[in-house]
Amino acid sequence: MVANAAPDATTRAADRALGLLRVVCEHDGVKLADAAKEMGLSASTALRLLRTLEANGFAARRGDGLYRPGYRMVQLGVQALSHDSLVATSRAALQSVVARTGESAYLSVAAGNTQGLYLAIEEGTQSVRHINWVGRTFPLEGSAAGAALQGKVEPGSFIVVAEGVEPDITAVAAPVMAGSKVVAALSVVAPSYRTTPEAARTLGAVVAAEAGRLFATPAADQAGAPGLDDSHPAAG
């Protein structure tokens, strides 16, 4: 009897943890009490399991007290679903950026409170171009894509950051909006030696325009991307 109890208890704990993870992933932020109620668990049991998920990066408790998917879930999702709808939707925009600039273009998303994650790339056509960083995390603070993901860049505009993530590299990024929510960042990463202020403005206009078209309604798309000359350059 004792020999059978341990596997059963382990199975129940795993089922409960996975069930809580499902609840967290299915909601745009969920309270502890609501997650516990949906799973039929006591608040103390749900809290213990959620803390375990949080410690391993599968869940994250934000400042508003709500639980959301953690950075590890995002990473696993990228690896398991390489043709995710967001990646598929962005492919034409990434290709357009490269065709118009020759520089490597990235799509990135937030992966927790402090990190971003490179989700997709279209490699540039320049003989010297940036390497593939898909699946790699980067700090939100001090990076161009991070500023866009944090809502520090107005929709339709862009930011320029030199040497924010890597020496001798300049990044130009714009937010990708779905309604009023920032869902991703579109960026160009290029060697700093050829990213003059004038070149950065040109890159920014292209990136902001393509980012604005990704989830635009037909009416908004026909009207064109707003505010392309409202750039926000920053030193990295």
Automatic annotation (TrEMBL):
Signal peptide: none annotated. GO terms for molecular function: DNA binding; DNA-binding transcription factor activity. The keyword Calcium does not apply. It comes from the Bacteria. Pfam families: HTH_IclR. One of its GO terms (biological process) is negative regulation of DNA-templated transcription. Residues 72-236 form the IclR-ED domain. SUPFAM superfamilies: GAF domain-like (SSF55781), Winged helix' DNA-binding domain (SSF46785). Residues 11-71 form the HTH iclR-type domain. SMART domains: HTH_ICLR (SM00346). This is Helix-turn-helix domain-containing protein. It comes from Arthrobacter mobilis.
